[in-house]
């Protein structure tokens, strides 16, 4: 009977989209439907989690298209872990969106909540897919459902970003991923995710080498270079959408897909023998370093965070291609650790925009003294992304480093450590600028530093109120941002539990 929860996990967000539409004339009812469904979904996923830990085998067959070709779902540790991350963050993103969308007076809010719900439903479908066909269908639904979110503002810039978004994601998935899936079916007669993989002793190594490259580059949502441009382009979308793209669903669906294909289609033991896996390791390393270097050059805060995500995603791609248990475990952990750290940073960026209308790092001189909660949360998210204790990002980076050490890959260790230092370079100066720089007189997107004595005169002339009182974002934004910041902290102390749970990937 517990297996019947699986379809409800997928359908409940999609059904909620109809409820959101029907209650569109009442903001409170519409957002109440969103929050209620988000909590309901998390409870359902948690029930599946407890049942799985109790030893239940959970699966559900939707229907059979052809003999051996099904739309089917199965609960396994990696997918269940991803579903827990996505469903929990949907609650917090919904809370944040209420404050942001109202505070920023965004238009088309009903459409936003509808598309967001469908995107979450498709993400759960990806998480629980038991074969490549099922995963591909929900992967495409996720792409299409998030397109209206990227173009939400309706400006020319947003429409252009939407074209890039669809062009790259649909282009890579149809021309590479779908072809690889069909080719796999022809060669092996199955698309099922299987412990140890399905290729070994069945397919010529040259063919498998080509297939691996098609799979990795076909998963455009993983944003590996050169198929990464859609991600920074999509930053024209509202901040809750950026959070969805970077933390809750889209990019995490991409790297999750690469991990799942590596473990269950190729198998880690066989993957180590494939020549293209070594070449793809270096492509991931280039993406890690170049993404971090570009982030250093960006003054726009969301653009800086976007290139940071491009870099951080390739940690997981590199971990998958290293093809050993420690690295794969670190990659799986990084799905959650990066999700909580990066969503905190994007929440902070959105809060700054709502409260001050500032978007550039150079505009944030002394802003931390006006928005101390927001900037403190930004510090927490930054430390987690960097990988410092006591925050969760430490554990995922630690296990990826251990995986590199196990394979005696000193170059990869150098890349990972260098990237972490670059993380410091593009994140911590924002906090320093906010808390320790002098106040600035701002105007027309240009900022002019003012001396302390001049600032005192300005403060006296303006009765001190404009600069000295707190100017935080709406309460719902603050609640969500603090919650994800606390999540970064709690993940550090949950590291062993997560590690032991994810070990079941290789023990079942």
Major β-sheet profile: 2 strands, antiparallel
* Count of individual domains: 2
**Spatial order of the strands in the main sheet?**
1-2
Distance between the termini: 22 Å
How would you describe the shape? globular
Give the helix/strand class: mainly alpha
Number of strands: 4
Low-confidence runs? 441-468
β content, as a range?
under 5%
Please tell me the overall pLDDT: 88
SSE ordering: HHEEHHHHHHHHHHHHHHHEEHHHH
The tally of helices reads 21
Q: Taking Cα atoms only, what radius of gyration do you get, to the nearest Å?
A: 22 Å
Helix content: over 70%
What keyword list fits this structure?
4 strands, mainly alpha, two-stranded antiparallel sheet, 21 helices, 72% helix
Verbal overview:
This protein is mainly alpha-helical. It folds into 2 domains: 1-170 and 232-259, no CATH class; 319-508, no CATH class. Helix content is 72%, strand content 4%. The chain contains 21 helices and 4 strands. The strands form 2 sheets. The chain has a two-stranded antiparallel ribbon with strand order 1-2. Strands 3-4 form a two-stranded antiparallel ribbon.
What is the topological layout?
Elements: H1 5-22, H2 27-53, E1 59-66, E2 69-74, H3 77-103, H4 109-128, H5 132-150, H6 156-188, H7 205-218, H8 230-233, H9 239-248, H10 250-266, H11 268-271, H12 275-297, H13 301-322, H14 325-356, H15 372-386, H16 393-406, H17 410-436, E3 440-443, E4 446-449, H18 452-461, H19 465-468, H20 475-493, H21 495-502
Antiparallel strand pairs: 1-2, 3-4
Helix pairs in contact: 1-2, 1-4, 2-3, 3-4, 3-9, 3-14, 3-20, 4-5, 4-10, 5-6, 5-10, 6-7, 7-12, 9-14, 10-13, 10-14, 12-13, 12-17, 13-14, 13-16, 13-17, 14-15, 14-16, 14-20, 15-17, 15-20, 16-17
């Amino acid at each position: 009977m517990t297996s019947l929860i699986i379809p409800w996990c997928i359908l409940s967000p999609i059904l909620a989209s109809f409820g959101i539409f029907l209650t569109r004339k009442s903001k409170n009812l519409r957002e109440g439907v969103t929050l209620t469904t988000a909590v309901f979904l998390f409870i359902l996923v948690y029930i599946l989690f407890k049942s799985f830990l109790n030893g239940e085998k959970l699966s559900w067959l939707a229907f059979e298209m052809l003999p051996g070709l099904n739309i089917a779902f199965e609960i396994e540790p990696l997918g269940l872990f991803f579903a827990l991350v996505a469903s929990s963050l949907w609650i917090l993103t919904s809370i944040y969106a209420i404050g942001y969308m109202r505070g920023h007076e965004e238009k088309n809010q009903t459409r936003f909540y509808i598309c967001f719900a469908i995107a979450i439903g498709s993400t759960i479908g990806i998480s629980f897919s038991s074969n490549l066909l099922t995963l591909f269908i929900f992967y495409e639904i996720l792409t299409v459902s998030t397109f209206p979110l990227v173009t939400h503002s309706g400006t020319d810039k947003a429409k252009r970003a939407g074209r890039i978004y669809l062009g790259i994601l649909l282009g890579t998935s149809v021309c590479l991923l779908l072809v690889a899936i069909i080719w796999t079916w022809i060669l092996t007669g199955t698309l099922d995710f299987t412990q140890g993989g399905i290729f070994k002793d069945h397919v010529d190594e040259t063919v498998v080498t080509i297939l691996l490259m098609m799979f990795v580059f076909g998963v455009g949502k993983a944003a590996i270079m050169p198929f990464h441009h859609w991600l920074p382009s999509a930053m024209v979308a509202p901040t809750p959408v950026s959070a969805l793209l970077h933390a809750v669903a889209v990019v995490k669906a991409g790297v999750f897909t690469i991990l799942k294909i590596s473990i269950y289609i190729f198998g880690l033991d066989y993957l180590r023998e494939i020549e293209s896996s070594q070449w793809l390791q270096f492509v991931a390393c280039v993406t890690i370093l170049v993404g971090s270097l570009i982030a250093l050059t960006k003054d726009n805060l969301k653009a800086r965070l976007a290139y940071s995500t491009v870099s951080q995603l390739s940690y997981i791609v590199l971990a998958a291609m290293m093809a050993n248990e420690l690295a794969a475990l670190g990659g799986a952990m990084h799905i959650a650790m990066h999700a909580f750290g990066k969503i905190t940073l994007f929440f902070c960026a959105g809060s700054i925009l709502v409260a001050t209308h500032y978007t550039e790092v150079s505009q944030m001189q002394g802003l931390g003294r006006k928005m101390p909660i927001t900037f403190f949360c930004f510090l927490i998210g930054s430390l987690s992304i960097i990988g410092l204790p006591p925050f969760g990002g430490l554990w995922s980076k630690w296990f990826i480093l251990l995986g590199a050490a196990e394979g005696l890959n000193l170059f990869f260790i150098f890349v990972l450590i260098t990237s972490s230092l670059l993380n410091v370079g593009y994140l911590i100066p924002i906090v320093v600028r906010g808390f320790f720089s002098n106040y600035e007189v701002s105007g027309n997107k240009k900022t002019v530093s003012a001396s302390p004595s001049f600032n005192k005169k300005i403060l006296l002339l303006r009765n001190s109120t404009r600069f000295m009182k707190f100017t935080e974002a709406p309460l719902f934004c603050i609640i969500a941002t603090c919650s994800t910041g606390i999540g970064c902290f709690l993940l550090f102390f949950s590291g062993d539990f997560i590690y032991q749970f994810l070990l079941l990937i290789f023990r079942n």
